[in-house]
Task: structure prediction
Amino acid sequence: MTIRIALAGNPNCGKTTLFNRLTGSTQFVGNWPGVTIEKKEGRVKGFDDLIVTDLPGIYSLSPYSLEEVVTRNYIVKERPDAMIDVVDGTNLERNLYLTTQLTELGIPVVIAINMIDVVEKRGDVINIEELGERIGCKVIRISALNGEGVSEVLAAAVEAAKGPGTIPHHIFSGGVEHALAHIEEAAVHNMPEGQQRWYAVKIFERDEKIYDDVRLSDDVKAHIESDIVAAEKELGDDSASIITNERYNYIESITKVCYRRKSAQRRSISAKIDKVLTNRILALPIFAAVMFIVYYVSVTTVGAWVTDFMNDGLFGDGFNLFGAWIPGVPVLAERALDAIGCAGWLKALLVDGIIGGVGAVLGFVPQMFVLFIFLAFLEGCGYVARIAFIMDRIFKRFGLSGKSFISILVGTGCGVPGIMASRTIENERDRRMTIITTTFIPCGAKLPIIALVASALFGGASWVAPSAYFLGVFAIGISGIILKKTKIFAGESAPFVMELPDYHMPTAGNILHSMWERGWSFIRKAGTVILLASVIIWGGSSLGWPDGGPFAFKPGMELPDSIIGHFGNVVRWVFAPLGFNNIQAAIATVMGLVAKEEVVGVFGVLDFNGLSPLAAYSFLIFNLLCAPCFAAIGAIRREMNSAKWTLFAVAYQTVLAYAFALIIYQSGLLFCGEVNVAGLIFALFVLASGIYLLVRRGAGKQADHGMAGR
Ligand code: GDP
Ligand code: MG
Result:
């Protein structure tokens, strides 16, 4: 007979590592029916009758996030024969919260205290015998990483699977237990005994999905409700909070006895640093200063030196090294191609098209790498978690959650994982809103556009690059306010609980690894997507009707005569009110859909000229905020699981980008004393509409239950 064992635990507690260790290579990866959450199952190496499942990581069995729903449905409906509750031993308190719930399900549970290698290295001590006694199940120390205890925990799980379900040892306070007993009696008495408690607790918490499952009569519901209300009155809190608090109190009482931390020193240092960094008044200016430095250094100073070398030297005419002049790649390529007698058109394709386009993008890679080093450092040292915490405090007022900011910070590297990071957001409305706004933040691929505009048109002015970042944050804030006032997005955001990790110095290896992981995908893209796009742009600018004559192939023809020129001429009027009424800029904007770096790639193939700094800044703003690249749109499509929502997201982003660029360009003109009456009226109209959307009275909370479905 096959025994099914599920691995459950918080995110990052080491489930997948343990899973891989148990299954070796005999695993099957898929998706859960209907949702894009990874499903992993596999046979245990050497035991054909043991199947393990790696469940999505969760903090609790509440029905808030997709992960929680998937995991909970799996456990409650499929009922594995046993569960291994993987607990991160370095984060005992937070992890045991889930444990208290898992043990109530009537399924045999074995606790694996993982990361024991780290716990021991720190000199902390966990008394597993005492812990097991208090919780009511077997506890085993393991290190999924080096294999310690893995076979013991497997044996214990198999043994437990043969026995009855774990009986929870935790007793809630009198008032709660009284209500629970009534609920068990009235609502769930015909369920198997082991499962009654969990259902009763969930009913007590007024978990809507459970109410759907157990289908109570109105009579019973009213009866139960009065029990719950009585308990709430007695304990002075709402029922769900009562349960949460009592679980935490229980855990505290356990860890006090079973867990001894060697040194509280690091903790206290972190607390001291946090007094400043998360201070109510200082937090925001510090965050702004940090991001200013990050962008200033990566775009304007260090990054720019290297990029100048790459653009003017390596991919330009050449550079000086130890007093010797070394020609750049295009020059060398041209010489080599001449030497082998290459046809003129092919030479133009290779040098102007491919080296020009790909080189223009590659030239900015060093800047991306510098940015990624900063991001890796901020993440690794623990500051990013603080930013989410600080932002939560501010965003809460607009009904947004700090969790949205995690997506946004991930999106600073690349929008695709940023959009995927929204999965941790509990409620569907906030999740959608985060997906829609995440790509406002400049991703790595937008960095070249920022750098190009900053250096080519503003002489490397220090404010340009950071302003792009803060504009993105601003767009997100504005969107939050506007969207929250619509019926579809109205409602309180879920509370944000997050344990702030202690500060520590990340290792150089980790930083470099993270930088490389992010950066490599851009280099790869340069060799594939950007290369192809450059060929297309070059081809489109070499085919056309030179000098008004018949259709012909002629590299280097006047741009307006070419196919691309004709196309650009049709499109560019759309951007006229934004100031970049110019073929190159129009084409670049359209090609930005393929990949944002390609905006710069286009200028590598077609020469860039004719924009005033103001128009260039407007161009920058539009390209930063408008519809993201196809890869990110694809991610939006997958995460939204709806074509309609995807369309809405892209349309919203583009309209907002247009509005921002329009208002900034037209008001900028006003300052320069060059008023364009029609444009100004248009901008004022858009500004007024925007202000209306911002300050109007929002849809009330009654809209809370509307439009919940996909
Ligand atoms: P999951 O999110 O629960 O699937 O966690 P993973 O298996 O992906 O592990 C998260 C991180 O913890 C990875 O970097 C692992 O290498 C690391 N990890 C997992 N188990 C151990 C362990 O026993 N000791 C140490 N030091 N690291 C571990
Ligand atoms: Mg995993």
Remarks:
- The mean pLDDT is 87.
- The longest strand covers residues 47-54.
- Residues 15-16, 57 surround magnesium ion (ligand 2) (CB under 6 Å).
